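Batch job 17 of 40 flagged for manual review because the log was empty.
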Amino acid sequence: MKKHQYQINIEWTGNLGEGTKGYRSYERSHEIFSEHKEVKILGSADPSFKGDSSKYNPEELFVSTLSSCHMLWYLHLCAEKGINIISYVDTATGIMEEFENGSGRFIAVTLSPKIKIGNHPDYEKEAIALHHKAHELCFIANSVNFEVKVRAEIFCVEQM
């Protein structure tokens, strides 16, 4: 069995001069970066937890990892089967429940990709079926303890 290791850096940038002296005395701002990446991701907490709504929060990034992992497997499987994907746009949603003690957990994520394929409509059924295979292979979906639903829409378009 192969093992892969991933490293990411997080740096808190929300010290307003007093550190974490009090719950309201600091920002939740942080940067997510890696040594060999060009772009830093600006992060914060969800606004419900005193975060900055203009920055990505961990919950959004978590949902995005499920969405992007599924998409990448799906594109791979379609390429192998000769299904020509022209565009893929997913509006993924996650539901997290928060407990009385302030902790919480995700209870569901729904992926809702809208996919345009540039092949004959006969490929439509197979294109839908490949979502099941992509879900089975997705590293991230295999790592969570809740249901990930996929509600894909396929549109056949004329190729240019």
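Reviewer: the log was empty due to a logging misconfiguration, but the result itself is present. The helical segments are 58-81, 124-137. Unflagging and moving on to job 18.
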